[in-house]
Amino acid sequence: MKSTKHCILISLVMLAMAGCASEYNYTPPKEATAFNNSIVVDKGKDDVWKEIVPALGRTFFVINNLDKESGLINISYSGDPEKYVDCGRIHSLVSNLAGKRTYNFPTSKAHQQFELLNNTGLWNIVRKMDLDGRMNIIVEELGPKQTKITANARYVLTKSVIQTGYQGYPMNTTDTISFNSGQRDRFSQGTTCQCNGKFEEEILSLLVVSKK
User: Fold this and answer.
1) Considering the chain, what percentage of its residues have pLDDT values greater than 70?
2) Residue 15 domain-assigned?
3) Which of 19, 25, 71, 198 is geometrically suited to a Cys-Cys bond with 139, CB 3.0 to 4.6 A?
4) What would the mean pLDDT of 99-113 be, rounded to a whole number?
5) How far apart are the C-alpha atoms of 10 and 191, rounded to whole Å?
6) Is residue 13 included in any domain, yes or no?
7) 82: containing domain
8) How many domains does the structure of the chain reveal?
């Protein structure tokens, strides 16, 4: 009886796999071009400081620390990494008795469900990405009417994956990487991520009106 059930299960799996086609590609991000994370404005340090605090207060960034004497401001961002981080793209095509499904999405997307068909079977994958970003903004006096503003960020990315096969048993994995402005890092499974410069650019463009 057990042997018969086993044969039926094998037959059902083989039937489900019959006529199957699959394709999976991960495209890593291109090497990021260098970007400038500092600017010089024709304003005194006091005037710049008076603009910075209220400007930041109108954003969704969290101000963690302010020190006017040293010119240091620390802010943070937690949430969807897609806007500020480039991790390439994932393309997966699955075709079986249930039809043809194609998935193509940025790898830094906060939440994505897709399917993967390989020699071990059909897998349903739920993928999550979270970003914890911190930035030091340095306001440096160069002269009575000249101030330099520098934005240095630290990116901490956490990837969580739940894989469920046709047997119904999920496999959970969680991995974390970190890198600074202008850098990149790679998860243990090979996904490469880097900042795209928009976090730094957004802060600098927010705080100044006239640039030198």
Assistant:
1) 87
2) no
3) 71
4) 95
5) 34
6) no
7) 20-207
8) 1
